[in-house]
Amino acid sequence: MEELNDKQAELLLKEHGIRLTANRILIARTLSTMSYPASMKELEAKIQTIDKSNIFRTLLLFKQHHLVHQMEDGNDVVRFELCQSQDEKTDDDMHVHFYCERCQHTYCLSDTPIPQVELPAGFEQSSVNYMVKGLCPKCSHRYYLK
C-alpha cells in the first residue's frame, strides 16, 4: 500500500465505518508508511505522541472493521498491517507472510494468496494467519557464501 496523506486516511477510515479522530488518522497514516507488518513496539517508536494503550485500542478497533490484519510472527510478536480492502465487512486482500528465522524480519508476500481451506461442517472462519518460516533471500545468500 502506498503512503497515505490525511485526506486518503480519512477516506479509508470512513470506508471502513470508523469515526474520524486525529489519533486514528495518524495511526492509519503511520501504518501506511511501513513496508512490513509493524509490532506495537515499532509503532510506539514511530508515534511518540500517542500512548501505548490508545495505539492498541485503535488497532483492535481497526481489526474489528477489517482495516488491519493482525498476525503473530514466528517470534511470538503480534504485528499489524493495513488492509487494502475497501470494505468494513471483509478482508479481500489476505496474503501469506514470511518470517526469516535468521534476521527475524517479517515480510508481506502480497502476491501470494492464502490457500482456501475447507472447514468441516459447523466451523465458521473469522480470520486466517498464514505464516511461512525459513530464510529470506538475503540471509539464505549469506548462508551459502560461508
TrEMBL record:
UniProt entry keywords in alphabetical sequence: DNA-binding, Metal-binding, Repressor, Transcription, Transcription regulation, Zinc
Residues where Zn(2+) binds: 100, 103, 136, 139
Entries under Pfam families matching the protein: FUR
Gene3D superfamilies: 3.30.1490.190, Winged helix-like DNA-binding domain superfamily/Winged helix DNA-binding domain (1.10.10.10)
UniProt-listed InterPro entries: FUR, Fur_C, WH-like_DNA-bd_sf, WH_DNA-bd_sf
Regions that span the bilayer: none
Cofactor note: Binds 1 zinc ion per subunit.
SUPFAM superfamilies per record: Winged helix' DNA-binding domain
GO MF entries: DNA-binding transcription factor activity; transcription cis-regulatory region binding; zinc ion binding
Cofactor: Zn(2+)
Similarity field: Belongs to the Fur family.
PANTHER family: HYDROGEN PEROXIDE SENSITIVE REPRESSOR, ZINC UPTAKE REGULATION PROTEIN
Descriptive protein name: Fur family transcriptional regulator, ferric uptake regulator
